[in-house]
Specification:
Order of helices and strands: HHHHH
Helix content: 55-70%
Shape: elongated
Radius of gyration: 19 Å
Number of strands: 0
Mean pLDDT: 81
Distance between the termini: 30 Å
């Protein structure tokens, strides 16, 4: 599971660990400070794969760019095929502008 820093709480990490889900969630600087202040009782830092997190960021920015299209953001279309057509059109327009 890839998530933002806001989801780095101990409860969320514990829940994911119980379910066997490997998480790539960066640890906020305040949590790092708290852990280091506790010394050996602070435990080891959670795993973090920087490359996987970079890919998450790329996908999130792409989705945000697609949502700039009002029809996609509000889901105004009733039929799935019309929504998919708008998604393809927005993707093509974004791709051609680059």
């Amino acid at each position: 599971m890839l998530a933002d820093r806001a989801y780095s709480s101990r409860a969320i990490r514990c829940h994911l660990r119980r379910r066997g889900i490997r998480a790539v969630i960066p640890q906020p600087s305040d949590q790092i400070g708290h852990r280091l202040r506790r010394g050996s009782r602070g435990g080891r830092p959670p795993g973090f794969d920087r490359e996987a997190y970079k890919q998450r960021n790329t996908v999130e920015r792409c989705i945000n760019r697609l949502k700039q299209w009002r029809g996609l953001a509000t889901r105004a279309d009733k039929l799935a095929i019309a929504y998919q057509a708008a998604l393809h059109l927005a993707s093509i327009l974004i791709w051609t502008r680059r």
